[in-house]
Specification:
Strand content: 15-25%
Shape: rod-shaped
Number of domains: 3
Length: about 475
Amino acid sequence: MRSVRARAALGATVVVALALIGAGLGVLFVLRANLTGQAGLQAEVVAREVAGQLALGVPYAGLETRDEEDHPVQVTDDEGRVVAVSKDLQAITGTGTDRVTPLPPPVTGGTGGSGGRGDDDGDDDDVSAAPGRGEVDSDEPDFGNGTATVDGERADYRFASVRATTPAGETLTVHAGAPLAAEQQAVGTVRDSMLVGLPVLLVVVGGVTWLVTRRALRPVEGIRREMAAITASEDLGRRVPEPDSRDEVARLARTTNETLEALESSVERQRRFVADASHELRSPIASLRTQLEVAAAHPELLDLPGAVADTVRLQTLAADLLLLARLDAGERPGGTRVDLGRLAREEVARRTGDRIAVTVSVPEEGPRGGRFEVTGSRGQLARVLGNLLDNAERHARGAVTVEVRAAPRGAVSVSVSDDGAGVPPDQRERIFERFVRLDDARSRDEGGAGLGLAIARDVAVRHGGGLTVGDAPEGGARFELRLPGAG
């Protein structure tokens, strides 16, 4: 079952069915218990009425019961022998004995069966020995279900058993029944109604659930169709329809459009990157090929230094592209502790032959005992400082300054300043884009490929920090690298 609507309708139907079946069984159980309890109460009333007559010494033949057809009565002695039954009782079960023929009373002159006196001499002592009335047991009677055949009709009954003592001291048990026909009829009617109504109700529940789910999922189907069309056309500029509701489907549509927008931006950025990389690689490769072709035809005209410079530039560009590819792939920086103060001194020391002198300022007392440590990749952070120094020396007139200091909230700041022309405020974010050079008239050999600052910011961001540009005190540009301190 691949349809969400079908699964939802089936699930709702099953849940409702289980709930209704459970509730129906509970109703039937309670109804049966209540009606059975009422029948038992009626049986107890009849049993106590007969027991009261026996306690008053009424002879067995003179016992009276109400509605003998609806309330059969059986009286047994303490030995289980039947001593009296109601009129027209032909068979009985559920009372302990199925006999319906009373036994003749004993000939020993007791008063239990005939209601007469004891001895014939009428002695006063014997009269006082037999009390004037017996008693009925006040304890809760015993209940049970059984059947009885009265005047040829067999039916189910609820029997109540009450014990009584006659004036002669004989203990008897009165079994009186109340019909269960009303209980059976009521339970049967309710059961039949449930059996008829339950399928109809389940069909209604399933149909309503199907329609509601279909209406709720209609925007999802629209989103699916649009996504299929986008996939087929490869047009990332299209967007899925957003419903006016504020439910989960609307949030799904908005999230899908945001994802499409981010994907379109990423693909466009990738296309520009590939185009710019191809353009940047074409120049040194063409130059190197030209020099090699000239050298092959005229060895004496070989410009060896130029060929080496083009090769180095090509190697640097390839390394930059490889690093950007790794950064775009989500490469995480390492967990090495790097002292930025020491790293800055080492990078400046490697540039002793550059045309611009670089001044390094590192305080003696750092935030952690004289050390300006951060956590990350030493190679990538060295690449950042190298790119910032290359950029500063390319634009400086005569001075470049590197300053390492502690920043607020435990961060470490490294700033590289020059005394050049600076960066216009409206271009300070654009210079961090890839393959961007503000001086278009500058030759590629002098200005580079425009990847240094883009790489520097990407590395800074992946180390949990940032890279910004502002005005330097000397009048030029001031690039500030800020990274969270180690620990």
